[in-house]
């Protein structure tokens, strides 16, 4: 699908926001959390540039699917490392195993449902972590109310992942053209919510 001028602008803004977050938006945290957030926003920046240069059809590439898995896994790892120190090690193991599982199911030909199920499980757990942790911490007063914006970003990344996963599974919620049309805007809103949420955390 050919990118419109508006979609190119939305993807460019997404990349600029991700670059800003890497450069100045991550400070005063544990080293592992900083690395996790930097990797997440770095991959988001690269993904945005790939979409901008190669178009939305690049989403069909298994490499892009694997790279896109890094974003929720790294973001959720950073959040767990900062706010749930009691489960740091088990969650780190989950992140590594989840990434390797997605990688394995994309590199080797398997029955069509297996890669989709693995991807849904890995993205689902990471997405729920990104959504629920900031919202719960904001509601219980353990973080500022604005930190819930990170949860909103988690909901948006989950929505985008769900739309793409169901599209690849052959059971799309929306027509392919509609999904690809709204994806750049969804990416920008997601990144904006993350950057704003982390700024007031």
Descriptive notes:
This protein has seven helices and no strands. With 201 residues, it is mostly helical. It has one domain (5-200). The radius of gyration is 16 Å and the shape is globular. The mean pLDDT is 88.
Low-pLDDT runs of 5+ residues are none
Structural class given helices, strands, pairing?
A: mainly alpha
User: What portion of residues is helical?
Assistant: over 70%
Shape: globular
Number of helices: 7
- The structural domain count equals 1
Distance between the termini: 38 Å
Compute the CA-based radius of gyration. Answer: 16 Å
In percent, how much strand structure appears in the residues? under 5%
Listing every helix as H and every strand as E from the N terminus to the C terminus, the arrangement reads HHHHHHH
Mean pLDDT metric: 88
Strands, count: 0
Describe the sheet with the most strands. none
Blueprint (SSEs and pairs):
Elements (H helix, E strand, L loop, with lengths): L4 H20 L6 H24 L7 H22 L4 H20 L5 H27 L8 H21 L7 H25 L1
Helix pairs in contact: 1-2, 1-7, 2-3, 3-4, 3-5, 4-5, 5-6, 6-7
Characterize this entry briefly.
The protein is mostly helical and 201 residues long.
Task: Output the keywords.
mainly alpha; 201 residues; globular
């Amino acid at each position: 699908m050919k990118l419109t001028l508006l979609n190119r602008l939305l993807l460019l803004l997404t990349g600029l926001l991700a670059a800003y977050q890497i450069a100045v938006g991550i400070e005063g945290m544990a080293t592992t959390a900083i690395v996790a957030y930097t990797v997440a926003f770095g991959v988001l920046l690269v993904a945005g540039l790939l979409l901008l240069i190669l178009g939305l059809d690049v989403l069909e590439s298994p490499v892009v699917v694997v790279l896109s898995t890094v974003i929720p896994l790294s973001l959720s790892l950073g959040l767990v490392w900062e706010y749930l120190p009691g489960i740091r090690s088990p969650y780190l193991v989950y992140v590594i195993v989840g990434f390797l599982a997605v990688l394995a199911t994309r590199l080797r030909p398997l029955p069509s449902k297996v890669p989709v199920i693995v991807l849904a499980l890995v993205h689902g757990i990471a997405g729920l972590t990104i959504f629920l942790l900031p919202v719960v911490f904001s509601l219980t007063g353990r973080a500022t109310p604005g930190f819930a914006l990170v949860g909103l970003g988690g909901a948006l990344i989950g929505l985008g992942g769900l739309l793409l996963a169901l599209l690849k599974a052959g059971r799309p919620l929306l027509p392919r053209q509609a999904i690809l049309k709204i994806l750049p805007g969804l990416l920008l809103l997601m990144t904006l919510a993350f950057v704003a949420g982390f700024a007031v955390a």
